[in-house]
Design goal:
Length: 934
């Protein structure tokens, strides 16, 4: 793709066009800056002080409400089109959104991890990025701050911050309404009314309702449509009051409520072949994939083209996504004359229920039941006091922050009706270069319990004969050899039979995880004006975080307890038994999937962690000319540690000589769910040049992450590790000395933003980001170097991080010419994002790579005098670019961890048959919007 990358870089320099007034702003309490229609320099508040854009030494971009509207944005995903350093994607549900800035972010369906990119709405911290994937109502602007944050916002973040500022109530009566209709039977109604109820009180009410058919068709085995998924059915309400009894005091009260009742989120198969290495390099394919054959016998259908957007899932396991998110907040600003006090108090309750098919196929292997949910109850309080001293030579700010959060997760993962037979058939097929069973045998094995039993009997007989011969050849008495071989093969046959007979519904009945988090911080941010042209900014923060964890399991998997109590663990841990040991290990792993056992019910898991950390920033900025700003900065960032809320990893230390599932778990295993705080040292130099009709911003950065919190799904469970590098060679155990531990992930590159208004009613803008987020060549999985990198992450050393395209260019343009002399005007708008190649999977399997692509949006409209009414025709992704948001290893759908990817061939892998699924990006959409206001 080098030619594409060369074109992309050229496009980033030559075709920089956009209608976006890229304001660099950060203070939600400040009024919207007035903008000269033909000027590119505006007044912003990036350091909580009003300053021209060209005077602000911070890498931050703000997207105005008009720019969001032109791009067709209803949530923060539209920032992908307008901010080249950002990438936002969603996976198993919209509650699991992930945001990355400069190639860094937190991914995965694990609520125990906070995001490296924090989200604030009206100054209130939202617990996870998914809170921004809802309709936002009327907004003032959305700001993207790049790099570590902490001394200007209540909650700190290690990679960046998204700050959403809604439109405040106004003391002039006014209202807006819009109706949108599009393909997929898309309807969206939005409205706002605002005005005064007295000289000192103004109110506002925003509302949005939207509904749309699903982007995927659900079809049965015959190809007939039976439904759809990835639809939309949601509404949003926000009420506000602005109270200004005098010039010194301002109070803003906000209450909002979001409701979603949707079907989400389906995934399409993108790789179903069974790949084998070729002698000369590369790979070929076997005649059939043994895993796919078993599943086809159980009703799975593998469609040829994932972008046909046809899915076949178990008809009783439809995807369900329900959300109720509400909150209240109050912001008080009081001007004492010499100082200004700001207080923001908030309470939020966020509950999502996402359940249904968990194997993403027509086979009934795994599902989450309707009792599954996650809930965050969060109270936050922020105080800031700021002013000037020493004849305005010092602009000072001090603040404090407190947050108390209760997280409850009920994650009821259960076995479907086909799980037991699938597991037994998978093990009997083997993990060698070719299948032990024919395609017809495997399909019958998956479909018919009688066929499964017959194959188990045949497998037991083969094991008995092979073990007897092996024991005799080793010098054992034939009678003793026959007896021992018979005992072992009988144990394995019984184990396979027990596995095949696991009842439907086995698993978690009501297993809950609880995490209580308490965070407080003190921070200061000060600007010293050394000379009229030279400023020194110093910020410091101390954060203290404590988390309490507990879990209450209710699991009905009695089969696991019986298997663990049998002779199978002894067989599995005897390497001299070869394939028999591997089979015993497979029976235990699948029969006790994720430690699921009735033995969990007796556990009483409790743990607590506490941590304190200093972070901060220092910036030196110089204006040799009025139009030119040069700056250099250092920042130290921090993101709290926590717990992996997944019983699958209970007892797994990364150093286990015997897999945890081979034996019952104990209360002492609770510490294995911990992960440490993420830390970053960031360095940046920048230049900002501004003229009345155009401006240019350039920043070069380097960010060094230690204890980077990586979450990956290995096809069975979510693994969380703290990724670090090692300066010296790794030991034979793939560890290193604590003194050799170094940053595990470094993101460095250059950002360019250009904006111009060359003639009246024309605004063009664009940006280019080159960011190389690369892992160190030698990696370990802990901060002291004592834990090796998890085997599932073997491709990470020396590689580029997932979801981190090295080169991204955004460009857009708007022309709003006047039509005649009666106040009519037209709108012609287009924007584009051109993205280079990247890998969508956090394990970096080559099957999950995404080639570069371009996404283009466009809008054309007619607007009345003073824009009191408008009619607009729009299109999103107008060229129907086909690309993957996230590809992942389909749950359980490979022969073993050693057969996951062609990436294993270089180290001796003999076969790769892991099925790969993907959450696809949205297809082309188009429609019409009618808008009016008074």
């Amino acid at each position: 793709m080098k030619q594409y990358g060369l074109w992309l870089s050229s496009a980033g320099v030559v075709a920089l066009v956009a209608a976006i007034p890229f304001a660099h702003a950060q203070d939600q309490t400040a009024p919207q800056a007035a903008v000269d229609q033909d000027s590119v320099n505006i007044i912003v508040t990036a350091t909580r002080r009003a300053s021209p854009l060209s005077d602000v030494p911070i890498a931050v971009s703000a997207v105005s409400a008009q720019a969001m509207q032109n791009s067709g944005a209803t949530d923060i995903r539209a920032l992908n089109q307008l901010a080249p350093s950002m990438l936002i994607s969603s996976t198993g549900s919209e509650a699991n959104a992930s945001a990355r800035i400069r190639g860094i972010g937190t991914v995965g369906d694990n609520p125990g991890l906070e995001s490296s990119v924090a989200v604030f709405i009206d100054g209130v911290y939202r617990s996870r990025t998914g809170a921004g994937l809802t309709d936002l109502g009327e907004i003032e602007r959305v700001e993207v701050l790049r790099g570590p944050q902490g001394t200007l916002f209540g909650r700190n973040a290690s990679a960046g911050l998204i700050n959403i500022i809604s439109k405040a109530p106004e003391f002039t009566l006014g209202g807006k309404a819009e109706v949108t209709y599009g393909n997929y039977d898309y309807w969206r109604l939005a409205g706002r009314i605002t005005g005064p109820v007295s000289d000192s009180i103004a109110l506002a009410l925003d509302g949005v309702w939207s509904k749309r058919d699903g982007f995927y068709k659900l079809v049965d085995a015959a190809g007939d449509k039976v439904g759809d998924t990835n639809d939309r059915d949601r509404y949003f309400l926000r009420g506000q009051a602005l109270i200004e009894p005098n010039d010194a005091l301002s109070i803003r009260l906000i209450g909002d409520y979001t409701n979603r009742d949707e079907s989400c989120c389906g995934a399409a198969y993108v790789e179903t072949r069974e790949r084998v290495p070729l002698a000369g390099g590369g790979y070929g394919t076997n005649d059939f994939n043994r895993i796919a054959a078993i599943m086809q016998g159980q009703g799975a259908v593998f469609h040829d083209d994932p972008y046909d957007r046809r899915l076949t899932i178990n008809e009783d396991r439809n995807y369900v996504s329900k959300l109720k998110d509400w909150g209240v907040s109050g912001e008080i600003n009081y001007d004492f004359g010499g100082a200004k006090l700001t207080s923001i108090t908030a309470y939020r309750d966020y509950k999502s229920k996402d359940y249904g098919d968990y194997d993403y196929s027509g086979a009934d292997l795994l599902y989450r039941d309707p009792g599954t949910f996650r809930q965050f109850k969060t109270f936050t309080q922020e105080l800031r006091l700021q002013g000037s001293a020493f004849g305005n030579a010092l602009d000072w700010l001090v603040g404090g922050y407190y947050a108390h959060e209760k997280l409850t997760l009920q994650d009821n993962i259960r076995f479907g009706a086909d799980y037991g037979r699938f597991s037994a058939c998978r093990l009997m097929a083997g993990a060698g270069p070719t299948s032990n069973l024919t395609e017809a045998q495997l399909m019958a094995c998956g479909a018919n319990p009688l066929a499964t039993s017959a194959l188990i009997g045949g497998t037991q007989a083969q094991l008995n004969a092979g073990l007897t011969n092996a024991f005799i050849n080793a010098g054992m008495d034939p009678g003793v050899a026959a007896a021992q071989a018979g005992a072992i093969s009988t144990g394995l046959g019984n184990g396979l039979s027990a596995l095949a007979a696991i009842p439907e519904g086995t698993g978690d009945v009501a297993s809950r995880y609880y995490q209580k988090s308490e965070n407080w911080a003190l921070f200061t941010h000060n600007i010293v004006h050394i000379t009229p042209q030279l400023d020194l900014t110093l910020g410091l923060r101390y954060t203290h975080e404590s988390k309490r964890f507990s879990a209450d399991f209710n699991n009905n998997n009695a089969t696991c307890a019986a298997l663990q109590a049998s002779g199978l663990p002894g067989i599995a841990t005897n390497p001299q038994l070869g394939s028999a040991a591997a089979l015993a290990g497979g029976i235990l792993t699948l029969g006790c999937l994720g430690n699921g056992s009735t033995g969990l019910n007796a556990l009483d898991l409790h743990d607590r962690i506490s941590d304190g950390e200093f972070s901060g920033t220092a910036v030196l900025s110089w204006k040799p000319l009025d139009a030119l700003l040069l700056y250099g900065s250092y920042s130290r960032g921090y993101k709290a540690g926590g717990y992996n809320l997944d019983r699958f990893q209970l007892g797994s230390t990364g150093l286990n000589p015997v897999p945890a599932v081979f034996s019952p778990r104990s209360n002492a295993d609770v510490t294995t769910l911990r992960f440490a705080a993420e830390k970053v040292d960031a360095f940046e130099v920048g230049l900002k040049y501004s003229q009345p009709k155009w401006s240019a911003n350039i920043a070069a950065f380097r960010q060094e992450f230690r204890n980077f919190q990586l979450n990956t799904f290995n096809g069975t469970s979510f693994i969380v590790q703290n990724i670090n590098g090692c300066d010296g060679d790794l030991s034979a155990a793939r560890t290193c000395d604590k003194g050799d531990v170094s940053p595990g992930l470094v993101s460095q590159g250059v950002e360019l933003e250009l904006t111009a208004s060359p003639v009246r009613n024309v605004r063009i803008s664009g940006g280019m980001t080159y960011a190389r987020a690369k892992f160190a060549n030698r990696l370990v999985g802990s901060g002291d170097g004592s834990v090796p990198l998890d085997p599932a992450l073997f491709l990470l050393p020396g590689s580029i991080n997932s979801q981190a395209p090295e080169l991204v260019t955004t460009a857009s343009a708007a022309w709003t010419p006047q039509i005649g002399s009666n106040g009519l005007s037209a709108l012609f708008y287009v924007d584009a994002r051109m993205t280079g190649d990247f890998n969508t999977g956090s394990d970096l399997f080559p099957e999950k790579e995404q080639d570069g692509f371009s996404v283009v949006n466009a809008r054309i409209g007619l607007r009345g005098p003073e824009q009191k009414w408008a009619i607009e025709f729009w299109g999103q992704n107008i060229f129907n670019a086909k690309y993957t948001q996230v590809a992942f290893s389909s749950p359980l759908q490979s022969s073993s961890p050693a057969t996951s990817t062609t990436g294993q061939f270089a180290s001796g892998g003999v076969m790769a048959n892991q099925l790969i699924s993907a959450y696809l990006a949205e297809p082309r959409t188009y429609g019409i919007t009618l808008r009016g206001s008074f």
